[in-house]
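protein under study:
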Amino acid sequence: MVIVEMFFAMRLKHFNMKQEPRARWRAYQNISYDFRLILPMLILIGIGLLMIYSATSTIALNRYHNDAYYLIKQTIWAGIGLICMVIARKIPYDMDRFWVYALILLALLLLIAVKFTPFGASAGGATRWFKIGWLKFQPSELARFSMVIFLACSLSRKADQAESFWIGFLPHVIILGIFAGLILLQPDFGSAAILCLLTWIIMFLGGVRLSHLMLPLIVVIPVGIRYMISASYRMDRIKAFFDPWAYASSYGYQPTHSQMAFGTGGLVGTGIGNSFQKLYYLPEPHTDFILSVAGEELGLIGILFILAMYAAIIWNGISIALNAPDRRGALLAAGLTAAIAIQVFINMGVALCLFPTKGLPLPFMSYGGTSLLFSMAGIGILINIATTRR
């Protein structure tokens, strides 16, 4: 259904490059959001699959005797994500409160199960995955997704009381504290920080008093700093951020090799499949540092094209939020767009050595089924809101 609508959008709402700039802009605004959101999303997923295969073919061949092992798994998740996107597009976004609370409860139970039951799967010194048989799921992604839906529902219902400390502020902060605390126990400081930032943004847009929002910073900032310095590996990452080449053989290993990848790529890149850093030099080239592989193989021109695709998604998400039919739709669209924008900003910042190393996937491109699934479901909800407006 979605693909058919995309076809007609391309067929009937095409550009005439001979028009005046304003006329072209009006033509662009008349194009269906289905096309304006799905097209860049599909392009990013396609580039991601290409880079995943390039980055993992040698590793997969040695580990699983199948060079397309990671590519096949990610393609399956992309197919599931398309189904979830279509479902999210069709189900009314202003769902009953019962389903919103059920989603929050499911996220809470999975976060508890990861840490306190045998279903938690560990990797890299952290227990962040819920695993049953072949199914491996990251509950922190569901927690972020469900928190956006919950806040949009709650703050739209309490619009007249959003400035109240006991109604507009405290209940939401309590739920945030429970989620963030469970995520920190995994431990996953980055995901907890992103969840806090995302909640702050939605509450600010939802009308919560700025004085109330500033109040937790008095506690959160010192506690966050204390938490960061409580583990030596976090401090080592911060030191490596300021001078990665001084720690090139330890915590600066990933940043330095990421810089090498971008430097080698130059303007036009080395060509697809010709990355050198992916060959056991750059750790996790298909997840956290997929952009580095793209930078080496596609060059600056390829990175700028990828940035343009993300900019298109974020721009249209903001437009949907500004033109939403109701308060709930506006907060929901703003939250989902902010979630994508924050992940893109941090992942790219880490890959370009602008931020300390943090394991965070790049939406639509990095290897990882949970992130891809919820990112695509978010696109479905954005189109849902835009369609409701029309």
In short: The chain is about 70% helix and 5% strand.
